[in-house]
Amino acid sequence: MIPSVRHASTTPPPKPRVLAQPDKFRPPSHPSRLRSKTPRYQYGPELTQEQKTKKQYPHMMPPEGSFMHWFLTNRTIHLWISLSILVSLVFGVWLSEFIHNTPYRDLLPPNSMFLSHPFSFIGRWAEVYNMHVAYVSSQTAERRKQKVDDVKKRSDYRKAHGLETAEGVFGGWTAKTEEETRGPGFRYGEQVESGAVMEIAKGTGESVMTQAGEADETYVDFEGKTQPLRKKWFGLW
């Protein structure tokens, strides 16, 4: 017969461990025994002062002495970059406006000419720009002349209808006389010159004053004829 084998242990099972009841409540942050001051993890030896100045940390300022630190902290190079950007923007706006508004756009040289003949390219650009400046000056002078003529016609109209007196705070929108546009120096010189002429020839002076008075009482209409000035009471009749 084959004897039977029992795989069960004959020793009794051990008793469960029972923790001693604490004398008071101790949270995990305040155990009964002090923690060791020795750090749990070791990250290597402490860095020296020289190594700290050259250590590069992520998302932080580069260390002193490096090229990036000089580039980010140098004010001169930042000023130069800012002014270069502003000047380039101003030049670009001026160039686009000039090309869009100039009537001599067809006379501008092609861009490929700058590499083959740079001096001729710049010279032709200068000639076209001078022509553009002359054109703009002539247009401005023509507009100014039209405005001056308009003001002169308005002044003659007001004078013909007895409205030449100053109105409002600024004296109305009429053309100023030649005496009003001149400064005090011209007026004083004219007074001295007229006084000398009066002393030399009194008779002729009286006739000149008479003609001047008559000229003040007349005006030139739109047809170029000299008409007597009509005086109106209170500017109505």
UniProtKB/TrEMBL annotation:
<feature type="region of interest" description="Disordered">
    <location>
        <begin position="1"/>
        <end position="57"/>
    </location>
</feature>
<protein>
    <submittedName>
        <fullName>Uncharacterized protein</fullName>
    </submittedName>
</protein>
<keyword id="KW-1133">Transmembrane helix</keyword>
<feature type="transmembrane region" description="Helical">
    <location>
        <begin position="77"/>
        <end position="95"/>
    </location>
</feature>
<keyword id="KW-0472">Membrane</keyword>
<keyword id="KW-0812">Transmembrane</keyword>
